[in-house]
Amino acid sequence: MGMPVRIDDELYEQAKSEAAAEHRTIAGQIEFWAKVGRAALDNPDLPVSFIAESLISMAEPRDSAIPFVTRKRRA
């Protein structure tokens, strides 16, 4: 269930621009930023880019994922 929230016009315009580039809704973009921010505060030793990329990868459907296969070492 969504809740209406008042935000600054400048933040809205930034979210609108990023949402279009990332193929998200404006609300989805702000929600993503909030998740990244919360995870960054909880894990100050991790780079924000790592956190963002991890959240994106965790949101991808598992059935379309490519399994990781290690290379065999040569004898």
Structural commentary:
By secondary structure, this protein is mainly α. It has a domain at 31-57. It has three helices and no strands. It has helices at residues 9-22, 26-42, 48-59. Helix 2 (26-42) packs across helix 3. The longest helix is centred in the middle third of the chain and has 17 residues, at 26-42. The N and C termini lie far apart (57 Å). The mean pLDDT is 90.
Mean pLDDT: 90
Number of strands: 0
Distance between the termini: 57 Å
Instruction: Specify the structural class.
Output: mainly alpha
Approximately how much helix is present in the residues? 55-70%
Count of separate DSSP helical elements: 3
Shape: elongated
Note poorly predicted spans.
Answer: none
Rg over alpha carbons: 17 Å
Strand content: under 5%
Q: In terms of quaternary structure, what is this?
A: single chain
User: How do the helices and strands follow one another from N- to C-terminus?
Assistant: HHH
Main beta sheet: none
